[in-house]
């Protein structure tokens, strides 16, 4: 029983604690309409964090997710796509995410460069291309279908929440039901042992980065639809937040735990905490401090729990 309890992601206990606290201090916070608002807000981050899960479980990082989101936003908001089928615009945006992830993966695996340095460099290049592409003036010609994905509802349920759930199912299947997931966790736990066991470690890492780029672009589409206009700085805060959600979900850089469900719980916890802080009047610096403390405490507790188990 102790081993089972310590194996559960920190986000699960954090969510329970936050819900109890909110029930006594801000009961309206747990009302169904407000929870649906939180779901719509959490969906873009949740998809980006699911993509980050693949690389973190593989002992890597993707610090280019923020730039990928901004670039996707500039693509879908540009007036040059007026008159083209929305499906084509969406396909181009997702293809951009795939290419970015592929470039990251090739540089990390073939050149054996640091993922931190590579993805930071990629982010800078993407940002520069985005400025050139938009001329420094992001457009506002967002297709209605993208706005519907970000803002629409089916009954009370946000469309973006349903999209997030679909991506969660895909990530869960990839990580827990397919050979790829076993390879990712094996390579993350011990790359040398995985190599000697015949696991294609470099190919697995490459695929992880490609998936991260695709998921980041998908989250960028939802966030673009939610905002409704182009923005040069959209998604900048998703770098830290996506990593935080993964760590809260129990995946501490190759630990092999957490996975898709843990990351989704971590995203929900992070969004609820940040919104509670807003309700209590905490400003942005205070939120950053709390967010950093939550990540550190979750990582320490989880690691100690695994050692003790």
Per the CATH scheme, the topology name is: ABC transporter involved in vitamin B12 uptake, BtuC
Query: How would you characterize the largest beta sheet?
Result: 2 strands, antiparallel
Q: What class, by secondary structure content?
A: mainly alpha
Using only CA atoms, what is the Rg? 19 Å
| CATH classification class | Mainly Alpha
- Report mean pLDDT, rounded to a whole number: 90
Number of beta strands: 2
Taken in chain order, the helices and strands follow as HHHHHHHEEHHHHHHH
Supply the number of structural domains.
Answer: 1
Beta-strand share of residues: under 5%
Main location: membrane
Membrane topology: Multi-pass membrane protein
Organism: Nitratireductor arenosus
Protein name: ABC transporter permease
Describe the protein in words:
- There is one protein chain.
- The protein is mainly α and 309 residues long.
- It is built from 14 helices and 2 strands.
- It has helices spanning 2-7, 10-25, 32-56, 65-77, 86-109, 115-134, 144-151, 159-176, 179-189, 191-196, 201-227, 238-248, 259-279, 284-308, and strands spanning 153-154, 157-158.
- The chain has a two-stranded antiparallel ribbon with strand order 1-2.
- β1 and β2 form a beta hairpin.
- The longest helix has 27 residues, at 201-227.
